[in-house]
Specification:
The protein is about 40% helix and about 25% strand. The chain is built from three helices and four strands; from the N terminus they run αβαβββα. The termini are far apart.
């Protein structure tokens, strides 16, 4: 049978090994957090011929595929991750997330 001192040593060793494995998790997360992502907010899309593109000038209007008031697509590295709406705060544009795409929907879009 272990003495109280031996039990303390064993418990201390177990606690240290648990703490070190727990400490390893944030280190792994730090590695992932440093991965750069390009985040794009897409108002809409259209296709133009080169000839049409060359005719554009200041004040030209380009018709987009989405209607006014529709949600915006938020893409991370060109993959849809959320949808949102335009907000204006202190005279700057922003996007309020209204829906985060579920993992299942993201997997479906990869197919």
């Amino acid at each position: 049978m272990a003495t109280p001192a031996e039990r303390t040593k064993e418990t201390g060793t177990d606690a240290r090994s648990k703490a070190s494995s727990t400490a390893a998790t944030p280190a792994n997360m730090d590695f992932i957090l440093d991965v750069p992502l390009e985040v794009t907010v897409e108002l809409g899309r259209t296709k133009l011929l080169v000839n049409e593109l060359l005719k554009l000038g200041q004040g030209s209007v380009i018709e987009l595929s989405k209607l006014a008031g529709e949600t915006l697509d938020i893409l991370a590295n060109q993959k849809l991750v959320a949808r949102g709406e335009v907000v204006v705060i202190n005279e700057k544009y922003g996007v309020r997330l209204t829906e985060v795409v579920s993992p299942m929907e993201r997997i479906e879009r990869l197919r």
